[in-house]
Amino acid sequence: MKLDHVHAAISRWFDADVADASESSRPAHDAKLKPYTISPPVQRRGVAGIEVAVLSQDAEDELLSTAITGPSIRVGQQALLVGDPRLVMEQTYAEMASPPFGNRWDVAFLTPTTFRSRGRSTPLPSVGAIMTGLLAQWNRWNDVGVSLGPIARDAMWVSDLQLMSEPLTITISSKTGKPSQLHLSAVTGSLVLRCDQPETAEVVSPLLRFASYCGVGSVRGRGLGVVQVREHSRSVQR
After folding, report:
1. Are residues 181 and 104 in the same domain?
2. Do 112 and 181 fall into the same domain?
């Protein structure tokens, strides 16, 4: 089951039709900030499924109203029935923005991750690239009026890493609507982020908690950039 096919099937639940994009409250299909992410197929307790993280109340309502009707979706050449949605984990924005705040975060890249700028892709997960993307998503979708930023980047650094780059090709729609191959440089593995300023940690902690739902990097809607983050309190030393 290809990531492209999964993305094509599930994104229809959330994205506006091209003809209605200007008048719809839904995000356009090519929007840079979207209130959902789609993970590759997984198995939990012997049941196959697709994990979808929703970042806004509207997206959650859309997911539940669509999935609960038990529609069939076409994934490539396969027609699959959608079962009842199952909650895997949840946190409100208020909970993510609440203390105590840590000063060390273990970030594991569970799926290939890439970062794009000026039409180029890089597998390098710099602090700036990670935090800038998370900050934009948080300030766009949070529902508690808690805007975060700016981040004192000189207060953050990578203290450890185990990374491996890999080439990746995905299929996207070109400006003419025809399928086009996009070649990316992606990364998997893990790294450790640290912060030595408490006032900066008050911004960083909510964003890195948010990363477990939002993902990091580019092309998150196609299953890239899925991360798992473990937060450590200031009392923990390495």
Report:
1. yes
2. yes
Evaluate whether residue 124 is within a structural domain. Answer: yes
Span 21-34, pLDDT tens digits: 555 677 777 788 88
Question: Considering its fold, how many domains does the chain have in total?
Answer: 2
Instruction: Verify that 116 and 210 share a domain, yes or no.
Output: yes
In tens, the pLDDT along 207-224 reads 999 999 999 999 887 789
Which tens digits make up the pLDDT trace of 71-81? 677 666 777 76
Answer whether residue 87 is part of any domain: no
Does 72 lie in the same domain as 161? no
Q: What is the domain extent for residue 202?
A: 93-232
Q: Are 26 and 15 in contact (CB under 8 A)?
A: yes
**76, two tokens:** 């490539």
Q: Are strands 78-81 and 179-195 parallel, antiparallel or unpaired?
A: unpaired
Asked whether 109 and 229 are in contact (CB, 8 A), the reply is no
Let me know whether 29 and 126 are in one domain.
Answer: no
What is the pLDDT confidence band of residue 13, given thresholds at 50, 70 and 90?
confident
- Rounded to two decimals, the pTM is 0.86
pLDDT digits over 187-197, tens only? 999 999 999 89
Spell out the alpha helix ranges (H) of the chain. 3-11, 57-67, 93-96, 127-141, 198-214
Structure tokens at 138: 């948080």
Determine contact, residues 123/185, Cβ cutoff 8 Å.
yes
